[in-house]
Design brief:
By secondary structure, this protein is an alpha+beta fold. The protein has helices at 3-20, 62-75, 109-122, 151-169, 175-186, 188-191, 230-239, 244-253, 260-279, 282-291, and strands spanning 27-31, 38-43, 48-55, 84-89, 94-100, 136-138, 141-143, 198-200, 209-211, 217-219, 225-227. It contains 10 helices and 11 strands. The strands form 4 sheets. The protein has a 5-stranded antiparallel beta sheet, with helices on both faces. α4 runs antiparallel to α5 and α9 (260-279) packs antiparallel against α10. This is Fructosamine-3-kinase.
């Protein structure tokens, strides 16, 4: 996509949208915005905002879904999320999201403890079925969220099998591994404990939590759905960066069922499949290592 390309063609239109919002923007600074978005810090006399741009053709409703997810999380009154100022599309078929700017700071042990407790409280929001009222995104990958009555059905048909097919289409895995994944899915009822469908962030890695100057964490870039709560913790452990205080505090509020460490690789399979699809390399080997047991 590229910053220069976007700036030359679409920035004038974005500036017009900003004028309509009466934000009094006098400076736009390009910043790092992840792997798929162009991102900018918008600066006014006494405030800052965060702007993300992307193509509406390639990722339909990406930011509208993100805005709705942030609103859902905010309503649980557990996590701080940046306020959504505006979301929409330009006449040139680009989409944008304008968020409150979050000033970050180094987290303390108290911050980590509060984060663990808040995640446990967030997971107390439950539903009678697994899934979500719309498909959404994790990175650039569409997550099917068809409602099911069992976690094994949901994890099989909305997560593992669709991703295995995508990897097979890219010739990153073989039919042998697809069969191993199928056998794994047939055993999910015996692997995961039966729990109520829980509202989860869906992409709870270190890059999607921001320690704030107010001493708390804000969460961003959700891929929410009602799933198994161990999925959030599995992603947190997979990519690191979380203090042990976080996990201890979670356990105090909402202890995990026995043998959760043994289930960890199975819960981490989905995020590893996503990364294998996006980045290939050793993530494919990680997937293959998990599937070898099946």
């Amino acid at each position: 996509m590229g910053y220069n390309f976007l700036y030359d063609i679409f920035m004038n239109e974005i500036l017009e949208r900003l004028k309509q919002l009466d934000l009094d923007i006098d400076n736009i600074v390009p910043i790092k915005g992840g792997d798929i978005n162009d991102a900018f810090r918008l600066e006014s006399f006494n405030k800052k905002y965060f702007l993300k741009l992307n193509t509406a053709n390639n990722f339909p409703d990406l930011f509208k879904k993100e805005a709705r997810a942030l609103d859902t999380i905010r309503k649980t009154e557990t996590f701080y999320t940046p306020n959504v100022l505006n979301v929409g599309e330009t006449d040139n078929n680009f989409q944008y999201l304008i968020l409150e700017w979050i000033e970050t700071a180094e987290p303390t042990l108290v911050n980590w403890e509060n984060l663990g407790r808040n995640l446990a409280k967030f997971h107390q929001n439950t539903n009678d079925k697994f899934g979500w009222n719309e498909d959404n995104y994790i990175s650039i990958v569409v997550q099917p969220n068809n409602f099911t009555t069992s976690w094994s059905d949901f994890y099989t048909n909305n997560r593992i099998i669709p991703m295995m097919k995508l990897l097979q289409n890219k010739q990153l895995i073989t039919t042998k591994e697809v069969k191993a994944a199928t056998r794994l899915c047939q055993q999910l009822d015996n692997i995961f404990p039966v729990e109520k469908p829980t509202l989860i962030h869906g992409d709870f890695w270190n890059g999607n939590i921001l320690a704030t100057k107010d001493g708390e964490f804000a969460v961003v870039d959700p891929a929410i759905y009602y799933g198994h709560r161990e999925m959030d913790l599995a992603i947190a452990k997979l990519f690191g960066g979380f203090d042990d205080t976080f996990f201890d505090a979670y356990q105090e509020i909402s202890p995990l069922e026995n043998n959760h460490e043994e289930r960890l690789p199975i819960a981490q399979l989905f995020p590893l499949l996503i990364h294998a699809y996006l980045f290939e390399g050793y993530y494919v080997k990680d997937v293959q290592t998990i599937l070898k047991k099946f």
